[in-house]
Amino acid sequence: MSFDQVGISSVGVYIPIYRLSTEVLRQIWGQGGASGERAVANFDEDSITLAIEAGIDCLEGTEPDSIDALYFASTTAPYREKQSSSIIAAALDMREDILTADFTGSIRSGTIALRAAVDAVRAGSAKRAMVIAADCRIPPPNSTLEPVFGDGAVAFLIENGEVAAELEGSYSVASEFLDIWRLEEDRITRTWEDRFIYQEGYFPNLKRAISGLRTSCKLALDDFAKLAFYAPDARRHREMARYLSLRAEQIADPLFDRVGNTGTAFALMIFAGALEKAQPGERILLANYGDGADAYAFRVRDPVKAVKDKSPLKRKIESKLMLENYGKYIKFKKLMEFESTPDFRPRTSLPQLWRDRKWVYRFHGHRCKTCGKVQYPLQKVCIYCRSRELEEVRLSKRGTLFTFSIDERAPVIDPPNVLAAVRLEGGGRFFSEMTDRDVKSLRVGMEMEITFRRIHDALGVHNYFWKCKPARK
Q: pLDDT by residue (tens digit) across 201-215?
């Protein structure tokens, strides 16, 4: 099947700032067979917050009001019965009259959502659609999956016209094969014996999808400058490359030793890395596995320069902080019970959250029409001149550090507790906790970013709000 002039116009990537090295894992478990490091979500991050960061990166230079549909793919959505995509759309400050949809149940969900977005744009039901894939999967401790799994998110803007990569064709295979799964009550991934998985599931399904794509598009593997394909680990990735008889320069970097297997986002993240280095006229093959397989043929166009200049994957990989020990990883992932503070009883109010949604989710403030001051959160009266003539405005998510304090004894998950005030670009100040920080490098005047994070859980509700963090260079 061919798709005329429909493709990817913008790419966004988010990789958490923290990394866990395999050296740390080996100190605890003595595991072998893996090298490098993998990305680990902070304690206040989940698949929703990762997706929002990737979406912000993808929307750079694009008006959120221009998006007509948002598709979110993940196997680790925080809610079982509640759309994650609606929360993401609100935090990205998109219009309310858009289509939001969640895709889940398989690590292939990301490429399935990509196909749905392309179909929507091609059919004319959406001019611009955004696809975001994100996962925070938890591997069994002391397992072969622990040095492999990583956390991350990737976003693509799909439209018809001047695109960076045009979708030329696709081929999909469905399979009921059961290899990796989680039950309703599971937090940790279950898996079967690996030889059975690879011989009966991964290899035959991915090969079939790639072969079907080549036949339907009448293309040979030599016609592709890069192949970005999913693999459960580095060894199977090398085996698949050998089976396909790929040249070394055709193999897109699988990121195992720097990010890890990011589940739903993994194949798409590898593809994003290949797109950053592509030249106009080249073809890239994207292949993904999970309950079958998908294969896509993309033709790179001239506007790819916009993607290359932004280099979202390269920037996020190079910006990192190392977790100094395994205990911090265990605490971030909530894999062990720690002593709690008896006096801390989180509360939430759904009516109040609904009333305040404009500044809680969308990060809106107001500008006084009398004195021109920008303020946050939304108020009924200007705190400077007491005027009631206020207009609601979208606040910048960038600024500079105005002041901060460090509390070494606060009972927080990631001590010390850092509170900060940020002077926002375009006006206004924001006061919050600081996350993703190296306290030794903090200084007044440094560049800051505003990030959407998970604050606490109460009464069965995930409470999200904005925090500040040092800008990632």
A: 999 999 999 999 999
